[in-house]
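Please check the following for our workbook:

***
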Amino acid sequence: MARDAISLITQDHRRIEQLLQRLESERGDRGTPLAELAARLVAHSHAEEEIVYPAVAQSGARDPAEVRQAENEHHHAEELLHRLQGMRPDDAEFDRMLQRLADAVGRHVEEEEKTVLPALKGAVDRKRLEELGRAFAERRDEEMRRAGVGAGKGPGELVGSDEAELMDKSRDELYEEARRVGVKGRSRMSKDQLAHALAQQRQGRH
């Protein structure tokens, strides 16, 4: 698994998007994905603000005002997240707030991946990107642990990494793996549900 800052940030973005999609489609237990979303989104934002954004500003890759705007977008998303956490998952207002959060995160991710990350890549060398990646992962992982989300084998391998990896496979591949390890109810599961069940099974073996 890549360890440079850009790869780790992008991997986090995909995981956050998966969690948002799962919350949008889930009509059962929303507490588990919401808890991981809250921990990951806040930890990711704080690690970017403390580790990556200062490096972007120091490198001259982006105007400092743009970096401040990205931080403001983080704060807006966190505000929406906190409001969402205060709602009942079966309340219609929950879905409206979830959509507002998904829209805000989507705009931020698109802008960051189109401008900020490519600018950083062009401004610093590979060694520096890997140094930033290690620092970013350590800061993010530390905050996620404090939030009660377990860590995996090392920096950047948090709970959810298995699920993100599994989502790269087809539903048929996931179903076959679920059959091999004996996941119950697999024939009725969607691709997302199969990936989640298999990730939980893997974590239970660690």
